[in-house]
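Recall the central idea of this unit: under ordinary conditions, the amino acid sequence of a chain determines the structure it adopts. In this exercise we apply that idea directly, starting from the sequence alone.
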Amino acid sequence: MGNRFTERFGVSHPIVQAGMSWASSNVALPAAVSNAGGLGVLAAGPMFVDDFREALRGLKSETSAPFAVNVPLYRPQADEILDIVLEENAPILIASQGGPGKYLKRIQSASVKCIHVVASERHAKKAMEAGVDGLIVVGAEAGGHPPPAQVSTFVLVRAVALAAPDVPLIAGGGIVDGAGIVAALALGADAVQLGTRYLATRESRVHEAYKQAVLHAGVEDTTLVGKAFGPIRMLKNTFSERYLEAEAAGADQEVLLSIFKESSLKLAALDGDPDNGKPEAGQSAGLIKDLPSAEELTGRLIDEYSLALARLSELSVSLKGGL
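Accordingly, the structure predicted from this sequence is:
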């Protein structure tokens, strides 16, 4: 499964485990994915600075394969986290929720490769012009923070592939199996990012109740909350129902913000209350039916990818035979 993504970032397979707050804010999940040939990602978002340093050192001891660190640039102490990325020689930084200009030269001068997360064609072009080493393009199906304009992965990935052909492109949103990998690569992506699928693994560090909520969800069981503050895609629950009812009734922004702040991802992921928390998940949750290990899942994705390619090859032969 080699291509310019695997060559540039030194991994065996074009598979990236998304940096998910709480779910991959630990050593076990990214280490397992990297050891299986994908790109494991340590999520710095909710971590204290000292805990992050300890986890990064632990990850380095658990895998000799490349891995990445995801840093939301808006978070408090982002500069301190970036200092640790450099001090501990993390090989790859995945930056999200902020512009690349502030950090890029500093990171690249230390020979750290930089992948930037974007949710629009415009931001992809800006990141490409700034000189990032890769782009993660997230479509509307994705859990967490999808594009405000709600452009689907299918359309957005194709648009960015045409607009930024010289940068390795990683497609995220709605991808859960090998067939999704083939579809993304056909659109022009060089790799895929899977979030919700890796959240539902044994190594994921979210509460079991959260994982079970994902397993029981259908493809229509996610919704968007907080459109005025930056949309979040999450599983439908008591909190989302209360928020959306207030929004539909015309509540003003102050009231909506108050309701929005009553809940959190931590409440679902760490405290085990997915009904009142914000259990972020993509629409692909409806396609997930089990909790494998991350190693097992990565191997399965590769097998499914081969099967999907074989099916297309048979279709190609059939079409040629009919011409």
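Strands lie at 15-17, 40-43, 67-72, 92-96, 113-118, 134-138, 169-172, 191-194, 222-225, 232-235.
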